[in-house]
Amino acid sequence: MRTTLVLLALLATTVAFWHNTGRAQPQSTHTVTFAVRQINNAAATCDSLIRKTSEPSSRHYGQHKSLSQVNAIFLNREAVRRVESWLATQGHQFETIGDYIKVTSSISNLETLLSAKFHAYRHFNIANKIFYKTDAHTVPIEIANDVEFVLNVDLPRVIPHSFTRSKSALVDADGNTTPSVINTQYGITNNTVTSATQSLFEALGQNFSPDDLSAFQQQYQLPNIPISKVTGNNDGSSCSDNPDACGEANLDVQYMLAVAQSTETHYRVIDQGSQDPFYDWIIELSQATDTAHVHSVSYGSLAPEDPKTDMQRFNTEVCKLGLRGVTIVVASGDDGVANFPARQDPSQCGFVPSFPATSPYVLAVGATMGPEAGNPEIACTSDAGGLITTGGGFSVTFNRPSYQDKAVQNYLANAPNLPDQSHFAVNGRAYPDVAALGHNYVIIDGGSQTVVSGTSASAPVFAAILTLVNDQRLLNGKTTLGFVNPALYKAPASLWTDITSGRNNCAAGQEGSQVCCDEGFTATTGWDPLTGLGSPKFEQLNAYLGKL
Ligand SMILES: *[C@@H]1O[C@H](CO)[C@@H](O)[C@H](O)[C@H]1NC(C)=O
User: Fold this and answer.
1) What's the pLDDT tens digit per position in 391-429?
2) Per its UniProt record, what InterPro entries does this chain match (predicted)?
């Protein structure tokens, strides 16, 4: 039985979602963040360093650095001090996290500081929060050389990558994904983790419920393991009143802990009022000494709308985390090649990549379907009844990293029905890298069973699989995987179930009523921009990665 889809909180730049309420109140308080310029040609240096520790053939494979070693390479302490002392002499309050300086002040002070005019915006879906945006700003001349850019001067543009169906759409004829379906499909026989750690990124007002997690674990006879650490504000009691505000977070928590039963599973939630949830998160991680080994992100934004310098620096932060042995896993999106604006509006069809899924240093995960209904694994697409369509394509901002040259060139040379190469960024970073089940996951949300679909499910499941691998590596005295893409692209094909069926031209939605665009990519033998290299065969993957 099919019922109406319920969209989770949707934040988009689409004008309809935002209401400009006029000039910001001069006395209101806001925080802007100065990103202090890094040293040693950070992006290129990090890239060359991470090749040495992530290429399987390198004799430095897995030789990760400590936070202080990474800071010694990239952190411009003198510039940070110059910016701090200038702000202090101007009477500003600030907080420094590594090379990011957060200035909290009145709008009128910030307007003077940045020679800017702030406008106050409200979002139709977010009560009691005001967001601030300037159309133009400048950095004071005294610190201009030391500051790369300023954050929190624009509106957020992030959505979670999952789709919820109402409670009445329970276990149905299409079949459901449960922890045992995942274990069976990927050949996972032991979900116990002894020391590897993992973490979830959450934002946009999502909460997880510890009670729902326990109920889920009981329902599937999983060990009762709670989330061990929450950073930020989580209100699990809100889930029974407002399950939509918990669907994403409950999905992530329940399935990450089902697949990798780590007693060190963290939950890091960025406040709903954040104007840049990804940056607020990566800034914290960039200096956190207790960061988990693997992080899963089930959210995305429209890459073409993000400023290139911001994205480049974000990439460098992910790269720096890779140098420290940390893996970032990101969902590839639920709306095929066109991305979420096409969900409501066919005029938005086109090739619109997602960020941070297209960061060259994250592992981007697409969605598959089929095994939950006893069928072969195919790409999850809404025109095959998948409710969502696995996101994928090519970055318009970042060039293809060399680790995927061979796989992507092979695709471009042999792809069936390849769209005209002038329509997409044929030389861009191609995504996703891998795939995992993303259809009809049963979760407990607000005390009731709910069924959710999305690359949002695929990402925490794949992240948890890497936690299982990390655990074996650590037990064997090796280091964590860190940046794992080069190793995965070098792996023998026998590690993967190659997903060769599907086309990602449709957006998320009910079969028959969803927006389908003219153009999309087609799954085929080998890597493709729907399911990447394929879905994992755990034993083989674990054996291969365990030997590196
Ligand atoms: C499962 O894995 C854990 C951690 O590696 C190990 O301690 C335990 O013995 C394993 N259990 C089985 C049944 O193999």
Assistant:
1) 999 999 999 999 999 999 999 999 999 999 999 999 999
2) Peptidase_S8/S53_dom, Peptidase_S8/S53_dom_sf, Peptidase_S8_Ser-AS, S53_propep, Sedolisin_dom, Tripeptidyl-peptidase_I
